[in-house]
Specification:
The protein has eight helices and 16 strands. By secondary structure, it is of the alpha/beta class. A hairpin with a 2-residue loop joins strand 3 and strand 4.
Length: 254
């Protein structure tokens, strides 16, 4: 039996009028699934409103203790509820969760000077599977408990969280969903990119910032056990050939 799909929704698209509602209707076509979401624009907006620094390195947010509080408030609060409401209106029995709830995600702080940013060490897959078996659609905000500090949880890159969840569930597909049709190289959307080529694209500046993080997460998901990874727009849900497929190695012609 194939595992569920995991869909990561880009945070930048959530504020576009009508996009989330259209996405929710499309998601119903690929049930059962687990949704992991970002919320970068909302976090940035709240940080600036509170006069907090906004800084990213290699596509990942530098997270001071004060910014970590904003991340938790925004991702596990209004952004999560917004997505859950849209999915429920479309007919999916969505349930909002954060990585803290039920110990869904365990993480450790990443090395370096990103602050309260974590990398996932384990996923409580059995809990997600039980929710899926009950007919629910988990909607996961990517924060996780800090094992070395009580209180505010760690900020987890949403692409990395989706990768870890897909690997833990043996997902049949991991779909990175935004408003672009796929990964562009020299102005052309690519049908396929081999994982060994990803670092070269990043080094050449072809893939930068968020796309670099997304491609690295896609390669990690394949290594972890996800069967298929695609990057693209809402056509991913309607067309199995849509978007850019990330593959472990170059497909050789017959």
């Amino acid at each position: 039996m194939l595992g569920p799909r995991v869909a990561k929704l880009g945070g930048n698209e959530l504020d576009r009028p009508g996009w989330l509602e259209e996405c929710a209707r499309a998601l119903k076509l690929v049930d059962p699934l687990v949704v992991v979401h970002g919320g970068g624009q909302a976090i940035t907006a709240w940080s600036r409103r509170l006069d907090l620094p906004v800084e990213k390195r290699d596509g990942k947010r530098v997270t001071t203790p004060q910014v970590a509080e904003v991340v938790e408030m925004v991702l596990a609060g209004p952004v999560n509820r917004q997505i859950v409401s849209a999915l429920r209106a479309a007919g999916l029995d969505a349930l909002g969760l954060s990585g803290v709830d039920g110990g869904l995600l365990a993480a450790r702080r990443v090395a370096g000077d990103l602050g309260a940013v974590g990398e996932i060490t384990s996923v409580r897959a059995a809990l997600l599977q039980s929710l899926l078996l009950a007919g629910l659609t988990p909607v996961l905000a990517p924060v996780a408990p800090d094992p070395n500090a009580a209180g505010v949880p760690l900020n987890i890159n949403a692409d990395d969280a989706a990768c870890a969840v897909a690997a833990a569930l043996g997902a049949s597909e991991l779909l990175f969903v935004s408003d672009i049709p796929g990964v562009e190289v020299n102005g052309a959307t690519q049908a396929e990119i081999a994982a060994p080529d990803i670092e070269g694209l990043i080094a050449a500046g072809t893939a930068r910032d968020g796309m670099a993080a997304k491609l690295r997460a896609a390669a990690a998901a394949l290594r972890g056990g996800a069967r298929v990874v695609r990057i693209g727009d809402l056509d991913l849900f309607r067309n199995p050939a849509a978007g850019t497929r990330i593959v472990a190695a170059v497909t050789q012609p017959a």
